[in-house]
Structure formats: C-alpha cells, structure tokens
Amino acid sequence: MEERRGGGGEPRLVSDPVCGGDCTPVPPRRLKNRDFPLSVKRRRSGSAPEHKVHCVLVGDGAVGKTSLIVSYTTNGYPTEYVPTAFDNFTVMVVVDGKPVRLQLCDMAGQLERLRPLCYRSADVFLLCYSVVRPCSFHNITTKWLPEIRQHCPGTPLVLVGTQLDLREDVQVLIHLAQNQQRPVGTEEGRRLAQELGAVSFAECSALTQKNLKDTFDSAILASIQQTETNGVQQQQKLTLRKKTPDKIKSLSETWWRKINCLMGEQNCEFK
C-alpha cells in the first residue's frame, strides 16, 4: 500500500493491483472478465459497493501499451510483440480502504474505426508515447490529442513516456543517431504535459517496472477526483434547483408590492 496525493493535496492510499479481485498475480497471461471465477462474482454481490474506473490507453502501435498492462496486472512481461486489436483487462485495487475495479482498455494504434467505441465510456486516458520513438511523441499532438478531445473533451489525461529502460540502450542510441534522432527527454515530456493540460506526467518501464505503479495510480486518482468533483457540482445544481422556486416566489412578491405601491393600492414602506 502506497501513499499518493490527490488533486487537493490530501494523501490517498492505493494498494497494489490484484488480478480478478481475489487471485494473486500469475505469470504473463491476459486476464479478461470471462476468466474470473464465478465464485468470485458471487462473493462480491453482497460486499461493499465498488468504484469503477475505465482507463483507456492510446498511442502509436508498438510503443508498449500492452506491455504496460501485462506488467502491471500480472507482474510479468510479454516476450513477443503481438499487435493488439482490442483487449480488456480488469484488476482490483483499494483506494483509502475502498475497493476500486480498474478496467483497462488496450486499443490498437492502427484501428481508427474501433477506437471511438472504447472512448465513450472512458473515465481517464493514458496517452502513451515511446521515449525512443520521437515520431510517437510528435503524434501525441498531431493525432491522438485531437481525436480524444473530439470524442471526450472533458476526460482527464495522463501523459506517459514508455520504454524508459531503452533510453540509454547503446544499440537503440546508435540506431537513432543513424537517423539523426535522439530519445525524447524528460523535460520535453513534462512541457508537453503542461501544454496539453494533462493531470499528470510519468515515464515508466514495463520491463523493469520503474514508475509503473505510480503511472496507474495517477490515472486511478485522476478518475476518482473527477468523479468526486462531478458529484459535488451535481449536488450544488440540485440544491440550487430546490432553492430557486422560493427565491422566484420571494422576488415575485416584492415585485407585486412595488406595482401595488405605484398604483396607490398599498402603503409604500419597504424594509
């Protein structure tokens, strides 16, 4: 259990992820909703209500989105690159003692028609680029942000630089130099996050798991904070609606008293 700070500065505790809610981490294997034991679902039916966070990972293909999810949910690392079309992963975490079901949607960077289907229910986005693929960093502003803002203009974003372990890899650096390129720097990513209005910025590695949990914690807390903010705003609207009729009635009485005064039908003494 680690302490994280929400948008208001208050510390919040986020547990390690547990696959399926009750099972322990396993070797690399994609756990989907259909893999959860029925007994687990029955046990949860009478338990405390859980908060759901739908997190969507977007970015160019081959930047390591699937690897992030597999490493985070199973403590394993995929040894082969297999292009993803559409995958859903679910883990359970505990935030401030309350259960949270984290649903992770892994979308292909190449399938433009399918992506909006996953966007509609998103609570938070992980906007991913590879620190050793400058073109993927460039595409954040030219492709991914406009697409997300078109479908989900108010959904919080977390900007994520992936494949951090390769930034100092000699072979990678040689390959980039041959193409007159260099890795994307941390400050470049931080500046872009500020320009995009992202709620958080992180660089992480699925292989070494450096900053991996912090990255997903940021997404979870951003979604929860957004939900809480929306709830407060909704409550304020309901309160305003309840008070509005009385206010209108009061204004109407004062208005009619003034009219009667002007018409000489009553004493014109107002407090």
TrEMBL record:
This is Uncharacterized protein. SMART domains: RAB, RAS, RHO. It is found in: Cell membrane. Its cofactor is Mg(2+). Keywords: Cell membrane, GTP-binding, Lipoprotein, Magnesium, Membrane, Metal-binding, Nucleotide-binding, Palmitate, Phosphoprotein. GO terms for molecular function: GTP binding; GTPase activity; metal ion binding. Its main location: membrane. It is a lipid-anchor. It comes from the Eukaryota. InterPro entries: P-loop_NTPase, Small_GTP-bd, Small_GTPase, Small_GTPase_Rho. It comes from Amphilophus citrinellus. GO terms for biological process: cytoskeleton organization; regulation of cell shape; small GTPase-mediated signal transduction. Belongs to the small GTPase superfamily. Rho family. Gene3D superfamilies: P-loop containing nucleotide triphosphate hydrolases (3.40.50.300). One of its GO terms (cellular component) is plasma membrane. Residues 1-24 are annotated as: Disordered. The keyword Transcription does not apply.
